[in-house]
Amino acid sequence: MTTGHAQPTPDTATAARGCPVARDYPFGDAEALGLDPLYADLGRDEPVSRVLLPYGGEAWLAVRYDDVRTVLADPRFSRAAVVGADVPRQRPEIDDQAGSILNMDPPEHTRLRKLVAKAFTARRVEQLRPRAEELTAGLLDRMRDAGFPADLMEHLAVPLPVTIICELLGVPTCDRDVFRAGADAALSTSSFTPDQRIRARAEMIAYMAGLVARRRAEPTDDLLGALVVARDEHDRLSEVELIGLGLAVLIAGHETTMNQIGNFTYQLLTRPGAADALRADPAAVAPAVEELLRFTPLGAGAGFPRIATADVELGGVTVRSGEAVLVAIHAANRDRDVFADAGELVLDRRANPHIAFGHGVHHCLGAQLARMELQVAIGALQRGFPDLRLAVPAADVEWKTGALVRGPRTLPVSWVAARG
């Protein structure tokens, strides 16, 4: 196993094929919401290139929109093949989570996805919108009453998606500190040690197993209760799959939305006048959210690796069977051949086929839920606080570090208090 970048020599197979020397990846530390300009250079000159990760050696990196979509949708690129393998990755641990829906290919992936898909349809999500609006209004009222400066992450970005996913899945909101700590560890690269991540994962598995046992003793009609019935009465998934699926829904169901509420607010507050249309026209919020999804990089690097199960022509190169491929979704969403003014935030952009939620069979299950929560949060915040501003200079906002995803650690905001 490679133990870092101490041995950056390309593998012999790569060298023999005349491939260029691999670049260290990630290209550098993610700074705030900036995107390394090298992605744009690669998109123009070398859309599928060789990169060297801290552990597991080399991989191909796809940055162009069409190539990224191909990797995400083509069944010849496997997620299941990474399980237990020394694949290129940012962390030293080898992924051994065979029961995780993230590490499955069809038909196993399809079987598990069907068990939870009904809870995340557009129709079901719209039924949750009034509850999200109620929660948001209450959270913003409490933030206003507490006075400024206020941490938007604490007052809105964290509690809104956490409460929604807890109510949907059937997890006690009062356990927030338990699973938030587990989520932080699961998504860390260097902010937690490998031992801390392994211990946190074991604690999260034990926590979810406890909830499952409680459902068996006291059945409920929430999503977790339905999964227990699917396991116990219909044998549609194993116990390991049940616990893994519950954890995946819980963590993914709040973590990304939480960060993006903070990220999107930062984007709007650091662009004078950007949010004016959102305050004047509620209908402008939905396309603005789509553009913020396209423009704002959530990941600090590329996504999960996939392993080619056959030789595949991709972006002018041949990916050989057994080789790993990474996709840079944030770079693909800035592809100038797909998006006019790709490097600009155009809040009223209409044609917007971004792939912020992925593509293919692993397209984000909770995409509609995330969209709804982001629309509600951003819309209510802009209308309720028309003079919202950062309470510190933009350069002083503290960002998460050593993690797979980006987001403000805190986001201090201020506003003009209403006169009595």
Quick recap:
The chain has 420 residues and is an alpha+beta fold. It has 15 helices and eleven strands. β7 and β8 form a beta hairpin.
Feature tags:
420 residues, 15 helices, alpha+beta, six-stranded mixed sheet, three-stranded antiparallel sheet, Cytochrome p450, 45% helix, disordered N terminus
Structure description:
By secondary structure, the chain is an alpha+beta fold. The protein is built from 15 helices and 11 strands. The protein has helices at 12-16, 38-45, 65-73, 108-117, 122-146, 152-157, 159-169, 176-186, 194-217, 223-232, 239-269, 276-280, 285-295, 329-332, 367-384, and strands at residues 23-24, 48-52, 58-62, 77-78, 150-151, 306-308, 312-314, 317-319, 324-327, 389-390, 412-414. The strands form 3 sheets. It has a 6-stranded mixed beta sheet with strand order 1-2-3-9-6-4, covered by helices on one side. Strands 5-11-10 form a 3-stranded antiparallel beta sheet. A two-stranded antiparallel sheet has the order 7-8. Helix 8 packs across helix 9, helix 9 (194-217) crosses helix 11 (239-269) and helix 13 crosses helix 15.
Mean pLDDT: 91
Return the CATH class.
Mainly Alpha
Kindly estimate the percentage of residues that lie in beta strands according to DSSP: 5-15%
Number of strands: 11
Instruction: Quickly give the CATH architecture.
Output: Orthogonal Bundle
Rg to the nearest angstrom? 22 Å
Point out poorly predicted stretches.
1-17
Structural class: alpha+beta
Work out the helix count: 15
